[in-house]
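Hi all, long-time lurker, first post. I run a small reading group and we've been trying to get comfortable going from sequence to structure in the token notation. Rather than ask abstract questions, I figured I'd post a concrete chain and ask someone more experienced to write out its structure so we can walk through it together at our next meeting. Sequence below, copied exactly:
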Amino acid sequence: MGGAIALAFANAGARCAWIVPTYRNGRPLWRYASSAVGHLRKAKLVTTNQSERIIEFSQSRGLLGVFSADNEDSIRGEAFHLVILDEAARIKPGVWEDVVQPTLADYGGRAYLISTPKGRNWFYHAYQAAQRTEGMACWQAPSAMNPNPRIKAAYLLAQERVPERTFLQEWDAKFIEDAGLVFRRVRDAATAPWQEAAQEGHQYLLGVDWGKSADFTVITVLDVTTRALVYYERFNQIDYQVQLGRLRGVVRRFQPESIIAEQNSMGDPLIELLRREELPVVAFTTTNATKANAIEALVLAFEQGDVTILNDETLIDELQAYTMDRLPSGMVRYSAPPGQHDDMVMSLALAWHGVASIEQWEFV
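-- Answer (accepted) --
Happy to help. Here is the structure in token form:
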């Protein structure tokens, strides 16, 4: 439906944007849209740019472009008659409010927000607002309403085999409070104050999850005295020497008792460099088993109210989106959903692992 609306607007001369959480999420729409205009392309009434994912209508001068919300700078400064946010609940609220809405101002444009729910985040509040605001409207439909018999059969099968909370959200399109599949009471815990440096009499430790090119390096600072996440830095695509420099800066400000750092892959040489500087690094080797232990300790901390975190949407989104799969061997695998990140979750889990094992720390 969204694709048909966007193409109809573009054909009539409108500038249209289809915005997805990540680049990969745009593939279904692009396949549909480029196929739908195939006959017009042959007649040279439409041009398509595969690399930029833009369809332009020659006569009306309208266009449809696919944009990725994780590259928000590609959206800034544009002006659109129509914007469709696909999987909107998985797009950061700042993108919608600060980046997308201004693009509609020039033309007094309209927006469609399409999504499966993801807890009661900003998309839930937008849905609620649409029910009581003039000029807005909202719809909600479970998969059971799909007339495709295969979808209906899958719906009934999922009803028997999928956990209730997952089924209500993913199949019945219901907004489930604190609907993270792994972590509960996340928003209840988001009460910790931000700290720029160590407070007198407090003890700190760091959790460091190293990122590759597409992932983020995250440095989490945990106030052991208050059991609170009080500071973090998150960055990617910068040289490792710069990353180490930023870590040293955090260490100077908080003077942690220990730095729990992931040892896997590029972590090994970075830890060695830190140890040469006599920093209190504890290496954490990530396996499926050690990761599960660290995550489950953090899950228990949230459930028992032992930890508090910053009221930060990126962190909260990662925690609430975190998933668990049961492997054929019976073991559990924890990870972020496809196309999303879990670097902040892992950094926090490493820091909490340090708290849980504080009696056994071995400083190097």
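A couple of things your group might point at:
The longest helix spans residues 288-303.
The chain has three domains: 2-139, 143-179, 187-360.
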